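Session log. Operator J.P. requested a structure for one protein chain; no other inputs attached. Running the standard single-chain path with token output.
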Amino acid sequence: MKKKVLIFALCLCLLLTGCGAVDVGGFFRALGQAAGAAGGGHSLREAIERSQVIPYSQMEYTRPDLTELETLLAQTEQAAQDKDLDAVTNGINGFYDAYDRFYTAYSLADIRYSADLTNEENAEEYDYCTRLSSRVDSMLDELYRVLAASPLRRELEGDDYFGAGFFDAYQGESMYSEEFLALMDGESELRSRYYALSNGTPEAAYGSPKFYDSCWEEMAQVLADMIRNRQQQARCQGYDSYIDFAYDFYYYRDYTPAQARQYMEEIREQLVPLYRDLDGSLWDVAGEYASEAKTLESVRGAVEAMGGTVWEAFRLMERAGLYDVAYSPNKYNASFELYLPSYEEPFLFMNPGLNRYDSLTLAHEFGHFCSDYASYGNTAGIDVEEVFSQGMEYLTLCYREENRDLGGMKLADSLSTYVEQSCYASFEERMYSLSGEELTPEGLRRLYEQTAKDFGIDAAVFDSRDFITITHFYTSPMYIISYVVSNDAAMQLYQLELEEAGAGLTRYEENLDTWEMYFLAFLEEAGLQSPFDRVAEVREFFLGQGIGA
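Structure written below.
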């Protein structure tokens, strides 16, 4: 999972219109590259060779405050009124740097809290940054509104700056009303409550029967309260549907919820029968013990054989200690990758299961790491970013002999991704239609049970309370469909690699530094097919590989 989804959604200030990315015209990015060149080169790869990369162990967390941003905002506003273009551009760059410092501190707090959910000091700092984040983003919104109303708007919308029409989204009333900010703060508090509950207790370990018995209702109630809060957010912004609001606010998507819904229905019709017939023995290899060192080596060996950018990225990760893959019962039970903008370095986090499936999890997050490495913290759309994470899973099977026995399991996992993630995404859509007495822990449980039956995942090990373990419902609303569509694109890379050695890897490397926001547009540029046109073809591919036959 690319955990920066919510951060970057706000950082880019989508503002419900799809407009207003921080660096639309490329001007300020070019300024940064020029400054880097003046200082000896912006290239992170060159910095690796010069040993100028800052190791994670030397990164210090400092509690952020809003004073610097407030000062820079006021100074830039005054410069704009004075028609001092140089001072305005300096002010904007200063604001961006301060904005990056805040989100770097927030990310460091996130990593440290995730590493030990029992550490009260780390929890306090993470909560503090979470509470500030919506205020920080409202200040970025205010900066653009100040510039939109300034005498320099015409100059700033020139080709050398933000570009024509950039400030159109920043006219009229701001979305960051006190009501909306209060709702965002409320959601942050609920998310913190979720994290605290998700760690379980010594008497009721996460995922155990006792865990469900002891806290499922409380966790489900947190989700119900989140749904109510998010429904209010949507209404506050003039939306009837939270689903439509989330698509617009959090993601650049060039397909609609209706298209996604139809896609999930086709998956239910054509792939669920294969899923029901999956040979359970394909998963046996996943449960074999694997130490943290063995997992690292399984990915390292494949990546070294691939060479190129991905091997450079792995060398950076190891040299600077930009990862945490050690097991701990106190760690957040998930994996993610995020970007530390002030250091221009990615970071990978995983709480392993100490089995061979960990190598796919590590490969997934490392794919995100590669993408951020290649593009200096890319702002491509979420669906696009997930192509590189899931694509890396497939490619590691092809470039290390010891990984080849995971192939059958990975294809079973891929079929499961289509079906199970579609199930979760469908349940997520349906749960936002609940209200009143239906929106209760028991109402959510019944809805999940019915959705699971519709998608055939109500197997013997099924528990109708499982939805409380799907972290995305709590932390990244409407993200899950990204796994389904991007898995299809990633599997196309695998199919290319099977047809001709190196073909999938070449396509992967060619597109690794993309900044394309829109998924379907990215697929067209990369020479890949739309997943919405491929369900029948995917079914035949699985059958041809003996999966679900």
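Operator note: The radius of gyration is 23 Å.
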